[in-house]
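So, read this over?
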Amino acid sequence: MSLPAGRPRPEPTPETQHFWEGTRAGELRLQRCAACEKVYFPPRPFCPGCASREVAVFAASGRATLHSYVIHHRKVPGFEPPYAIAVVELEEGPRMMTNIVDCPQTPEALQLDMKLEVAFTPMDDEISLPLFRPAAGERA
């Protein structure tokens, strides 16, 4: 899948560099707190649950379920309407905002709780976006 021209490019920071290195390598990297074992997203240098700085990065499964979405119908630079703006719940627990790809952008196709899998989509040589598509058994 290729992205429409004009999509805003994420800018990695020291706190998010591991995440973007992971997407480029085909891994969805999350963080886990060593103190309370909370898994969280977005990346940050401390646990949002207990504030511990004892956190580790690990490769997540890339599996998720569709938690919520809206279908956007207006033209925005870098996006071709209609497109789903979604919140997915990762198998490991955290939720993340993303887009759903490789399926019709309709309420009939986008069923809440449907199984999804990550689809890494390159923007350039450094950034790949973690978009989500229906899991193999969910595809029409």
Remarks:
- The beta strands are 29-33, 39-40, 55-59, 63-72, 83-90, 95-100, 115-122, 128-134.
